[in-house]
Amino acid sequence: MLNIASLKKTKARLALLFVAPTMLGILAFTAGPIAFSFILSLFYWDVLSPMKFAGLSHYNYLLQDDVAVTTLKNTIYFAVMVVILQNIIGFSLAMAVRNVANKYFRYFFRSVFFLPLVMSGATVSVFMAYFFNTDFGIVNYYLELVGIGSVRWLTSTQMVLVTTVLVYAWQHIGITFILFLGGFASIPEEVIVAADIDGLTGWRKIFYIYVPMVSPTIFFSSVIGFIHAVQVFDHPYILTRGGPGDANRTAVMYIYEKAFQDLEFGYGSTLAIILFLIILIATILQFYVQKKWVFYE
Amino acid sequence: MANVRLVGLTKKFDGNTVVDNVDVDIEHGEFIVLVGPSGCGKSTTLRMIAGLEDMTEGKIMISDRTVNLIQPKDRDVAMVFQNYALYPHMNVYKNISISLSMRGVDKTEIDKRVKETAAILGLENLLYRLPKQLSGGQRQRVAMGRAIVRQPAVFLFDEPLSNLDAKLRVQMRTEIKKIHQRVSTTIIYVTHDQTEAMTLADRIVVMNEGKIEQIGAPQDIYDHPKTKFVASFIGSPSMNFVGCEVVKKGHSYFIKLDENVMIPLPKQYHAEKDALLDRDLEFGFRPEHVTEPRSSVDRHKFNVTVDVLEPLGNDTMVYFTLAGRSCCARVSPEYAAEAGRGIELDLDFAKVHLLDGVTNRIVPAYNNA
Ligand SMILES: Nc1ncnc2c1ncn2[C@@H]1O[C@H](COP(=O)(O)OP(=O)(O)O)[C@@H](O)[C@H]1O
Ligand SMILES: [Mg+2]
User: Fold this and answer.
1) In this prediction, does ipTM exceed 0.95?
2) Is B367 a member of any domain?
3) A208 neighbourhood in chain B, CB within 8 Å
4) B42 in ligand 1 pocket by Cβ < 6 Å?
5) Contact A199/B81, CB-based, under 8 Å?
6) Which residue, judged by its Cα, is nearest atom 26 of ligand 1?
7) Are residues B204 and B257 in the same domain?
């Protein structure tokens, strides 16, 4: 006779076998490094000489390190701007493409908006640096042509982070765009039609119907967009090496500089742990706040 | 007064004519049902009336005003859909009231009208629920509430009951009729269900392949269908058709179904009897007009073999083969019959039809009225 209890045990063991690779992967490549970073953050270590216990002194130092504070501020500002911009543009593009009648044009636009995503951030930044060059960039050429005059896109401390936001958002818009296309496709046609008859047209239709009905998409694209943008490195690095001053220096860039250029691995790890906590808290916050505004059917 | 006129209404999709030259005059307060098989262009017609679809040709008038170029929201129509189309993120109150707030009606007036509407539909206790917390029947009520609250000139219903189960469907049917009696707004109602059409309509418009087959009061359409399509589409089970010819023997005329079954030509066809000779005809009769033998003058008895029996409780449907065609009769349950056995049936002459096999139109009968 078959023993139910032992059958269950066998099944549980089998299940463990199936999840084991993933669990091992997470341990080795995610949880492990996080734990290791945390330990490192409590030590002085320059790779060459032996590690020396530092206690919380790195954390203390961070509070007085103006550059660290600036880079964290820059990073959060950058990520928030990117998320807002991507949501607005992704939403609008998807809305526009959805209304393109010819299906071949629709396919065309879908591919075009997705294309920058397959390029590397470095490549994009190299040619964008030319585009936004103050003196011979094409952007300023047109701005002068229409009489606005030239903007110091990459050399002004006020503008440089904004420019980086534009470049980054431009490259990644494909993801948000595709997410919103999917979001719109899930709105039943009749609901839109009912809105037409009910007199919900133009902006009202957008704010009363479209936005609430794609709120899960807005939420999702904000969460992954933020997590991704906070870790930005290559765009500001290639565009201006973080300059002028520290205006374009982001957290990951500073971590890299501290750890791999100055060989302060302990302090670099401290910065990394703080960044990790910021992402964690921001994500938890977003999940908490979404209950108030995201609507799931 | 909200009358609706469709004049030469035509819709083509990529060269396919989906609605073909439809003319209907709808009186104020009338309950019109567009009925026909799925794909015959009912929804397209309704969507054109609502302004959701451009017409290829023709004219639509609502309250004596041509609305061809008028936006849906300005046509003063409200529409109810098969799948409810409620705004899923708004509660019942908001779903019902939003069209009013979009039109700038003031808050106390909105509240009053929403409460009134909710009372008519029995939604008072559900006003603060979301659509996902409602049953199918309740959702359909909210969809109707959303239409009623606006007090539009015309209600447009597109198969509003098709997603409900059979019992609820019958119940909601009665309610829709009650609502119409109460608000007496013009209703244009689309369905593929002929029973719904019969029970609800003041007048039925039977459509087939984009064309109107016949317009008339339900009973009139049932009793005097003009085409084979209408005759078989309206009524369930549908009308029986058997190939026949009209023959003359001596001074008497007969409908000859086959060598065994000859039926004296019914009175209503006597006026034109010579014109019926040598024509390609079909003989049509409804199941309820073939019964167990009854004593009456205008009847004809004949014997058949039972193929299948279908007891319905109140009646029993008897399927048999007549002149090579499967036919159906409705007999009383007590009239014992058994599959494979012979049975005597009795046909009511006054109610039979002759169909022109070439044009597929019913041959007009005369002293029939
Ligand atoms: N947008 C459209 N494009 C092309 N053909 C359509 C469109 N809408 C409906 N049709 C076609 O028109 C015909 C009638 O459709 P419809 O009015 O929805 O029928 P019904 O409501 O009577 O079932 C169908 O053959 C359908 O395939
Ligand atoms: Mg339809």
Assistant:
1) no
2) no
3) 87, 98
4) yes
5) no
6) B39
7) no
Fold of A57-293: MetI-like fold (1.10.3720)
Over chain B, what is the mean pLDDT?
91
**Do A211 and A101 form a contact (C-beta atoms < 8 A)?**
no
* Cβ count near B48 (within 10 Å): 24
> Nearest chain B Cα to A188, which residue?
B85
Nearest to A254 by CA among A230, A220, A290: A230
The total of structural domains in chain B comes to: 2
**B215 and B285 together in one domain:** no
Give the closest residue to B92 by CA, choosing from B123, B127, B122, B124: B127
**Which neighbouring-strand residues pair with B57?**
B10
User: What is the domain extent for residue B15?
Assistant: 4-227
Cβ burial, residue A11 (10 Å; 0-12/13-18/19+): exposed
Candidate from A197, A204, A213 with C-beta closest to B89? A213
Q: Which atom of ligand 1 is nearest to the CA of B41?
A: 17
DSSP B209-221: TTEEEEEE-HHHH
Q: pLDDT tens, B326-345?
A: 999 999 988 867 888 889 99
Asked whether the beta carbons of residue A196 and residue B87 sit closer than 8 angstroms, the reply is: no
pLDDT digits (tens, 9 = 90+) for B26-61: 999 999 999 999 999 999 999 999 999 999 999 999
Dist. CA B120–CA A52, nearest whole Å: 80
Expressed in angstroms and rounded, the spacing between residue B191 Cα and the centre of ligand 2 is 8
**Which residue's alpha carbon is nearest to atom 12 within ligand 1?**
B18
Q: Contact at 8 Å (CB) between B185 and B152?
A: yes
Q: How far apart are CA A148 and CA B271, in angstroms?
A: 92
Q: B241 and B232 in contact (C-beta within 8 Å)?
A: yes
The CATH number linked to B284 is 2.40.50.140
| Neighbour count for residue B248 (Cβ, 10 Å) | 14
DSSP string over B285-302: E-GGGEES----TTEEEE
Task: Answer yes or no: is the C-beta of B43 below 6 A from any ligand 1 atom.
Answer: yes
Q: How far is A283 from chain B (nearest CA, A)?
A: 24
The verdict on B89 touching A (C-beta cutoff 8 Å) is yes
User: How many whole angstroms separate alpha carbon A51 and alpha carbon A56?
Assistant: 15
Q: Could you give the CA distance from residue B236 to residue B34 in angstroms, rounded to a whole number? A: 18
DSSP string, B92-124: HHHHHHHHHHHTT--HHHHHHHHHHHHHHHT-G
Tokens of B137: 């029947």
pLDDT tens string A51-106: 888 888 889 888 899 999 999 999 999 999 999 999 999 999 999 888 887 888 88
Report the 10 Å Cβ neighbour count for A41: 23
Q: What's the gap in Å between B257 CA and the centre of ligand 2?
A: 39
B102 touches chain A (CB under 8 A): yes
- Segments in A99-153 forming alpha helices (H): 103-114, 121-131, 138-145
